[in-house]
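User: I'm designing a mutation panel for GNAT family N-acetyltransferase and want to avoid disrupting the core. Could you give me a predicted structure to guide residue selection? Please restate the sequence first so the numbering is unambiguous.

Assistant: Good idea. Sequence first, for numbering, then the predicted structure tokens:
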Amino acid sequence: MKELEFIKDYKSNEPLRNSFFELAADTFELELERWYEGGFWNEGYIPYSYIEGNRVVANVSVSLLELVINGVKSRAVQIGTVMTHPDYRGRGLSSRLMNKVLEDYGQACEFMYLFANDTVLDFYPKFGFRPVEEKIFTMDCPPGSAGSAAIRKLDLASQEDLKLITSLGKQRIPVSERLGVSGAYGLLMFYCLNVFSEELYYLENEKVIAICQQENGRLEIHDLISTEPVSIREIALKLADNGTETIAFHFTPDDPDLTLASSSYPSGLFVRTHGSLEYVVNAKHPSTSIA
């Protein structure tokens, strides 16, 4: 078997890029081609890979971000797309790639974090990561409070709507000052294209894009995209309809007008800190910024 070669940041190498897309599709059913072709793979997303010829056989990607915790921005690296081709597993490739990431960023950022699935919960503590419990926040929707706002469903096939999403996405402010993310435009666009393409709504008067789903009396709000601070409570009630009983937020609302309940949310979050700063507790990382 040939010696594997380590390579990183090869976005412009078409054979390797396509092999990376193929491995991501086979491993996680991720569709990354359209995301790349739309120009949303920016310099803040860097794959660390082992290759054999023009074939990517193992990968750990980093997303360079800023976490906003209680209004303070800190340098952060989020790890994602950790995958190894089945023929190459059991050789410690993910561990070797993790060590390379730590060599480059372990001392250069205040926070490093990732979201792990149940099969690898014992893997990341070996590298200094600790599990952090997240919360999901909900509020009761008062009867008769459904708003009459001008809300338009967005269509990604429309160039006008796509331009609106990209423009607001690039200029957006973090959805929360208690726990928000800055610099996650590429991740946001992945979710818009591949996860929530049918759940994008524009509140025209408020100039807010809402990513939300309504089912069985529960309104799930995944993100609110705006360039100015907004009243989360007012926006939530405008998104509600006459059948809404509960509104759930997949981020950490910091609106003082909200009366919220919280419950445990098993997300598989692991955090590694460097320096004196601590990761926030009783919070929810914005769902559209998860790598």
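For picking mutation sites, this is relevant: Residues 45 and 63 are 5 Å apart (CA to CA). The mean pLDDT is 95.
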